[in-house]
Specification:
By secondary structure, the protein is an alpha/beta fold. The chain has a domain at 16-228: Alpha-Beta Barrel (TIM Barrel). The chain has ten helices and ten strands. Strands 1, 2, 3, 4, 5, 6, 7, 8, 9 and 10 form a ten-stranded parallel beta sheet that branches. Strand 4 (76-77), helix 3 and strand 5 form a beta-alpha-beta unit. Helix 6 (182-189) packs across helix 7. The protein is globular, with a radius of gyration of 19 Å.
C-alpha cells in the first residue's frame, strides 16, 4: 500500500468561531494529516459582503484546541505582511503548537480585499511573484538558522530568528502553478507545492517543476506534492449528496455552484481522486465549507482513504 495523506481545508468564511473551532478539533480526532484555512480578509466564494475570520489567529487558536494534527494556511498571502514578520509569527506558532506548523505562502490574487484594506497589490501578477520569490528566500533563511537580508523589494537586514522553531525543519509550502516563476520558487526553496486543477494539469505542472529542479540541481523527490480536491460531499444517494452540496453553497454567500466537484457516492469520489494519486500527488487537501459536513469528514477517512491507498 502507498500512503495517502488527507488534509482538511476548513473555510473561514460565512461561519462563527465555535463552528470553525469544532471543525478543527473534529479533523484532529478523525486522523486528518493537516488542518488548513484561508488567508483572506473578505470572503472569496459567494458574495464578498459577508463574514470571514482572520487566518493566523485561527491557527493560533487551533494550535491550543488540537493535539496531533499539523496546521497551516492554504496559503498565506505574501502581500499582507512583511516576510520577516511572517517568519517570526510561524516560529511562534510552532512553539504554541508543539512543533506542528507548516508555512504556507503564495503570491495573493484577490484585489478587492487589498483595495479595501489599503494593502499594496502591485501592478501585475508577475510583480507579486517577484515579491514572493524574495520573500520566501527570507523566510527560508530565518527558519534554517540564517540571518537573511532583502535584496530588491524588502529592506530586511540580517534578521535574527530567536528562538528557532521547535521543528528542526519547519516545512514551507508554496501554492500556485505559475510555470516561469512560482514553480521555480518552489524548486529553490519549498518543501512542498500545492497545484490545483485537473489531473492532466497537475501532471503537466509537475513536469515543469521537475525541469526547474534539474536546472538548479535540486532533488525533486524532496518536494512533497499536494493538490486541492475542491469540495467533497459524500452520501450513499448521489441526489442527496447534490442537495447537500447546493445547500452548502447557498449558505456561503449564495455562491454559484462550482463545477466538477467530488459530490456523490464513495465509489464515485474514489474514481475521481484516483488519477491524482496515480500522478504522484498523494497529499490531498479537501475543501470543507461551513457548515463542515460531519458525515463527509468521517467517511473520507474511514472509507475513501483506504481505497486510495490501494492504488
Amino acid at each position: 500500500m502507498s500512503e495517502v495523506k488527507l488534509s482538511a481545508l476548513c473555510w473561514n468564511q460565512y461561519t462563527d468561531w465555535a463552528s470553525l473551532r469544532e471543525a478543527g478539533t473534529q479533523a484532529d480526532a478523525l486522523g486528518y494529516d493537516t488542518l488548513w484555512t484561508w488567508d483572506h480578509l473578505y470572503p472569496i466564494v459567494g458574495s464578498p459582503e459577508g463574514p470571514i475570520l482572520e487566518g493566523y489567529l485561527t491557527l493560533a487558536a487551533w494550535a491550543e484546541a488540537t493535539s496531533r494534527i499539523r496546521l497551516g494556511l492554504m496559503v498565506g498571502a505574501n502581500t499582507f505582511r512583511n516576510p520577516a514578520l511572517v517568519g517570526k509569527m510561524i516560529t511562534t506558532l510552532d512553539h504554541i503548537s508543539g512543533g506542528r506548523m507548516w508555512l504556507g505562502i503564495g503570491g495573493a490574487w484577490f484585489e478587492t480585499e487589498h483595495v479595501a484594506y489599503g494593502i499594496p497589490f502591485g501592478g501585475s501578477p508577475g510583480e507579486r511573484l517577484n515579491w514572493l520569490d524574495e520573500a520566501v528566500g527570507i523566510m527560508h533563511g530565518m527558519l534554517r538558522g540564517q540571518r537573511p537580508s532583502g535584496t530588491q523589494f524588502y529592506t530586511t537586514r540580517e534578521v535574527r530568528n530567536d528562538p528557532p522553531p521547535v521543528q528542526e525543519h519547519l516545512p514551507i509550502l508554496v501554492g500556485g502553478g505559475g510555470e516561469r516563476k512560482t514553480l521555480r520558487t518552489v524548486a529553490r526553496y519549498a518543501d512542498a507545492c500545492n497545484i490545483g486543477g485537473s489531473a492532466e494539469n497537475v501532471r503537466r505542472k509537475d513536469e515543469v517543476l521537475r525541469r526547474h529542479c534539474e536546472e538548479i540541481g535540486r532533488d525533486e523527490s524532496r518536494i512533497e506534492r499536494t493538490t486541492g480536491t475542491g469540495v467533497v460531499i459524500l452520501r450513499d444517494d448521489p441526489a442527496e449528496a447534490q442537495r447537500v452540496f447546493e445547500d452548502t453553497f447557498r449558505r456561503n454567500g449564495q455562491a454559484r455552484l462550482w463545477t466538477n466537484q467530488r459530490v456523490g457516492t464513495v465509489d464515485q469520489v474514489v474514481e475521481q481522486l484516483r488519477p491524482y494519486v496515480e500522478a504522484g500527488f498523494r497529499h490531498l487537501v479537501v475543501g470543507f465549507p461551513s457548515p463542515y459536513d460531519r458525515e463527509t469528514m468521517e467517511r473520507l477517512i474511514t472509507e475513501v482513504k483506504p481505497r486510495l491507498e490501494e492504488v
